[in-house]
Amino acid sequence: MKVTVLGLGHMGSALAGRLLETGHEVTVWNRTPGKAEPLVRQAAGEAASPEEAVEGAEVVFTLLTNDAAVKAVALEGNVAGMLPEGAILVDMSTVSPDTSREIGAAAPDGRFVDAPILGGPEPFRAGQATLLLGGDREMIQRHTSLWEDLSSGHYYAGPNGSATTLKLLSNSMLVGGTQLLMEAVATGQAHGFSNDVLREVFGGSPAVAPGVRVRLDDILGGDHKGWWTLLLADKDMSLVLELAKQVDLMLPIAGASEKLIRRSIDAGYGEQDLGSMTEVLREKVSNSV
User: Which one of 40, 77, 112, 196 is most buried, by most CB atoms within 10 A?
Assistant: First the structure.
């Protein structure tokens, strides 16, 4: 299948790599030059513009940082409007459901799927992530082989915006669970437990979800280098709280999570991975008042 990938961050590069490995003809484009080189060495084509990248494609993927970036490409850049006949636009970014619905309305004949990913770059590249799919059910079913190439499982969530809604709620659980593990580690360390003991106990605890457990070593004493930065987490939690506001709900745990994220960003950890919040938690109360 002839496919296009717009956006070559950690997840976009993983997507393009996975598509190449599963035999698709891939064209890539990124706003910042230079990121396509490793993929070009693997036989991807590089386009100079979104217009060039979209030409002749059967499926166009966008995987970008936030709502503004997605809208700039899909709507303001008119990628949604310039889709080749019969092609579909698939946005795998984590964005507001309203953005997904807006793009769906702009795509010819509703040929748009919001398809956020449950999983990080490494499992995604290996085909071990899960996809949530929102859009026209029949159109999505016609592309079942593509979803199978990209994931270990895929779920139809409903019309456009449904998949991005569930993705945001999933990220909220991941952030909250990770913060609870950080609190447990910071408290355990302060009480004199060694990292080996904490790793054995928390690493084997059924109370720690697999998606949280992968950050245990970093929380215990890592360098907090990773792909899901606090700035991205802050964006996601803001969108979660907006979802709750729309239906007149108060989410006290999500609200507390966002406050810790923003406190950590203010402390200089915005470009570091989730585990960096542990450094803020380790501060003595007397030093943070």
Answer: 112
Domain endpoint, select from 123, 158, 193: 158
Residue 287, pLDDT > 80, answer no
State the residue range of the domain holding 94.
2-158
Torsion angle, alpha carbons of 264, 99, 68, 107, to 10: 150
What residue has token string 């850049």?
77
Percentage of residues in the chain with pLDDT exceeding 90? 96
Determine contact, residues 278/186, Cβ cutoff 8 Å. yes
Q: Judging by beta carbons within 10 Å of its beta carbon (0-12, 13-18, 19+), is residue 22 exposed, middle or buried?
A: middle
Residue with tokens 């035999």: 23
Give the domain-ending residue among 105, 129, 158: 158
Residue from 211, 37, 43, 209 nearest 123 by CA: 211
Interstrand relation of 130-134 and 153-158 (parallel, antiparallel or unpaired): parallel
Q: Which tens digit of pLDDT belongs to each residue from 139-171?
A: 999 999 999 999 999 999 999 999 999 999 999
Sorted by sequence, the CB contacts under 8 Å of residue 48 that are 6+ apart come out as 29
3-state secondary structure of 3: strand
Count Cα atoms within 13 angstroms, Cβ side, for 211: 19
**CATH code at 271?**
1.10.1040.10
Within 8 A by CB and 6+ apart from 155, the residues are: 130, 131, 132, 133
Q: Are residue 53 and residue 154 in the same domain, yes or no?
A: yes
d(CA 16, CA 150): 10
In this predicted structure, the answer to whether residue 289 has a pLDDT above a threshold of 70 is no
Contact between 35 and 52 (Cβ < 8 Å): no
Enclosing H/E stretch for 60: strand 59-62
Place of tokens 């779920």: 155
